[in-house]
Design brief:
The protein contains nine helices and no strands. The protein is mainly alpha-helical. The chain has two domains: 35 residues; 206 residues, no CATH class. Helix 4 packs antiparallel against helix 5 and helix 5 packs antiparallel against helix 6. The longest helix has 59 residues. The radius of gyration is 35 Å and the shape is rod-shaped.
Length: 265
Amino acid sequence: MLREPASGVNEVVRRATHVLSGSAIRVSCRTHLGDPLNANEVIELLKQGWLTTVPLALLSVIVFTIALERFWRYRGLEKATRDLARKQVDALVRRDVATARALCEASNTPMARVFGEGLRWRNIALEDLNEVLNTGRQEALAELRKGLWFIGTIGSLAPYIGLFGTVVGIMRSFHAIGVTGDTGFDVVASGIAEALIATAVGLLVAIVALVLFNWLQTRVSVIAQVFARSTERFVQALLYVEATPHGTDGGHMPGEARDGRFSPA
């Protein structure tokens, strides 16, 4: 007769203990989740995952350096190219080739070299002239794309570096379990924290690098369109000069033969 009340009391005590422990766990979780990480805790987490965070930090510094240098290189390039093309057209319409060459020598834009090369060769067909200008334009664009491949590579490679750190952190957690024989959270916490911080840093670097890469690629595409339109206007001005029968030098441009064909100036 006494076993049933005892078992009933034990069941009540067990349930009460379970409820109280669950409440304590929820309160503890809310307390920890409500406390943001301070700077020292973040630095400590980064130190734990130094195997991946240090290389990723160095790569991110290189990415930002290249991006800032390219941003400074692209700044105002479209406007400068349009202004140079407009001045070139005005000079060629006046058949003032000397001024056109002087404009190319005074300008530091990439298309100045292309226009200067186009002014040198005159005794070639239109297709050949377009080929010369297109080659120069592609070389100028290749110079503008210099370094972008590295930013794109880091954007693609950074998540895998973070994944490598994640694997290393998990391996350390299992190694700690094997050494201590304990599966408690205190044993595996360090390895799991290292794994998570490596993943987070890898994703952060990848996101920033890909954003910069896509933005810089878009800027180069816009500049390439400006280069193409400027080249078309330059060729049209040369064709106008060739078709014009009179000029400042006895009706002929410097470097133009009497039969209407063009020779190297």
